[in-house]
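Technical annex, item 7. During the second reporting period the consortium partners agreed on a shared format for inverse folding records so that results from different sites could be compared directly. Each record opens with the tokenized structure and is followed by the designed sequence. A conforming record, contributed by the partner at site C, is shown below for reference.
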């Protein structure tokens, strides 16, 4: 077996004739080398693990695509596990990937608190994709939702809106909605002289947004909003549908949503939307893993990417901005 191993891994150590004989035998027998065992013997792995809740969510699928592309560029293979949004399956894949001695793990967690039960193998770096891991002291790449809210408010102000309504979830129900709402309110408090109102949606559905739109549209002209920022596209679409006129426009109402779902396939009424940088989150997560593998510094890194605003009449948008590319000490979200 030493001759076969040298022929496969160190052909310069044996004669060309012997290399040919070994390769001919391999082809005849259909032998496939055990790559996992070889990597264990050599003390290194060219494989990383990826855990996502599911692939039905386009956000998760785009993160996975970014992970795979960045891994391929660095000659890394990817093992993928789907947790189905179950804590037990997340723990199972963390343990399984540890047994496979992967070089590192990228994980899209369902709920961040689940990770507070430690995955503590210091030889295998872990990066959270799409969730902020600062409170758990785990490296992470996520969306800067506060900056997303700021960008939405700035866009509405650029349109000259005076009466603005923010549609969001119940306060404290989801951090991403809270952060987007707070970012918008911060800008409006500094730069806006008109009225601002926050309306709470009872459910994350287009129907809930449409019902809110019906109530807003029923107001008198002096109280009807000129612009709406919904912290999720489903609410934005519902509001836009309610205000939709026969001409297919929202009767002068400017609507901005978030997450850039495929709105034109869901509704004939388009909305402006903040596109989440899912693909870039995947790529940056692998880059963070590689940095951890190349460095003896075990301090967690935290990167937050700013969404890009996609307007109704735009077909593409520039790449998102990166913020906090190497926060060495956890700092609170503004």
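Designed sequence (site C submission):
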């Amino acid at each position: 077996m030493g001759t076969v191993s040298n022929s496969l891994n160190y052909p310069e150590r044996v004669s060309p004739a012997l290399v040919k004989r070994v390769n001919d035998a391999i082809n005849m027998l259909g032998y496939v080398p055990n790559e996992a065992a070889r990597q264990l013997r050599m003390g290194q792995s060219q494989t990383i693990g990826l855990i996502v809740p599911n692939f039905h969510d386009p956000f998760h699928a785009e993160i996975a695509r970014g992970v795979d592309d960045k891994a391929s560029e660095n000659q890394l293979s990817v093992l993928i596990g789907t947790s189905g949004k179950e804590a037990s399956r997340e723990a199972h894949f963390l343990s399984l990937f540890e047994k496979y001695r992967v070089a590192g793990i990228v994980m899209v967690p369902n709920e961040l608190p689940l990770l507070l039960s430690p995955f503590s193998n210091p030889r295998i770096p872990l990066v959270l994709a799409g969730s902020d891991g600062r409170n758990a002291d785990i490296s992470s790449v996520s969306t800067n939702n506060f900056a997303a809210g700021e960008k939405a408010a700035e866009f509405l102000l650029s349109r000259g809106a005076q009466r603005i309504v923010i549609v969001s979830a119940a306060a404290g129900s989801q951090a991403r909605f809270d952060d987007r709402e707070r970012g918008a309110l911060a800008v409006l408090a500094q730069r806006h002289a008109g009225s601002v109102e926050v309306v709470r949606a009872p459910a994350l559905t287009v129907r809930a947004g449409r019902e809110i739109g019906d109530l807003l549209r029923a107001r008198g002209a002096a109280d009807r909003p000129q612009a709406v920022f919904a912290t999720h596209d489903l609410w934005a679409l519902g509001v836009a549908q309610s205000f939709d006129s026969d001409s297919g426009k929202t009767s002068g109402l400017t609507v901005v949503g978030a997450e850039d779902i495929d709105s034109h396939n869901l509704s004939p009424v388009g909305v402006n939307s903040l596109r989440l940088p899912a693909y870039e989150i995947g790529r940056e997560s692998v880059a963070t893993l590689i940095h951890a593998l190349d460095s003896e510094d075990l301090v967690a890194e935290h990167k937050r990417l700013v969404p890009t605003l996609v307007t109704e009449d735009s077909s593409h948008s520039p790449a998102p901005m990166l913020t906090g590319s190497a926060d060495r000490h956890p700092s609170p979200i503004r």
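The domain at 145-275 is CATH 3.40.50.2300 (Rossmann fold). The mean pLDDT is 80. All partners now use this format for quarterly exchanges.
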